[in-house]
Design goal:
Blueprint lengths: L1 H29 L15 E7 L3 E4 L8 E3 L4 E8 L5 E4 L11 E4 L4 H35 L2
Antiparallel strand pairs: 1-4, 2-3, 5-6
Helix pairs in contact: 1-2
Length: 147
């Protein structure tokens, strides 16, 4: 039973991470034309950074030579970083943020790339939901065996 709970916890960490990733992607799309930011200059694309969770010791049984460890603890969000790629530059002399030559620096957000990332994040989210459902179903079936 313990490993089924861990499977749910692992999937839950994936759900949380992918939800944050979708939020970041949505923010990027919302700011695709933002030429002014708090830092000055155009909005800079952001991306979520993930890392695997550390190995966890489950049981340390005195008469067993090595402790029982669990290696699939899920994922955690390390942070949100800015994409260092260059800004887009377009000729728009009528734009209020245009330079003296009529060029405007626009965010380094590519909507096509963001939509592809959103589809990937959605599929990963759905896969984690399916894994949780499977673990739940296995738990319910194992309880029925004990009847």
């Amino acid at each position: 039973m313990m490993s089924l709970f861990q499977a749910i916890n692992t999937s839950a960490s994936g759900l949380t991470a992918e939800q944050l990733r979708m939020d970041v992607i949505s923010n990027n799309i919302a700011n695709v034309n933002s030429t002014r930011s708090e830092q000055g200059g155009p909005y800079r694309r952001q991306r979520a950074v993930f890392t695997p969770r550390e190995t966890q010791m489950i049981f340390d049984i005195p008469f067993v030579k090595s402790p029982l460890t669990y290696h699939g603890k899920g994922v955690r969000v390390v942070g949100i970083e800015e994409d260092p790629s260059p800004f887009r530059i377009e000729y728009r002399p009528e734009h209020p943020d245009a330079d003296k030559d009529g060029y405007v620096r626009l965010p380094n957000v590519n909507v096509v790339l963001e939509m592809a990332d959103m589809i990937t994040a959605t599929r990963a989210y759905e896969a984690n939901v399916a894994a949780m459902r499977s673990a739940k179903e296995m738990m319910m079936r194992s309880l029925d065996i004990g009847k």
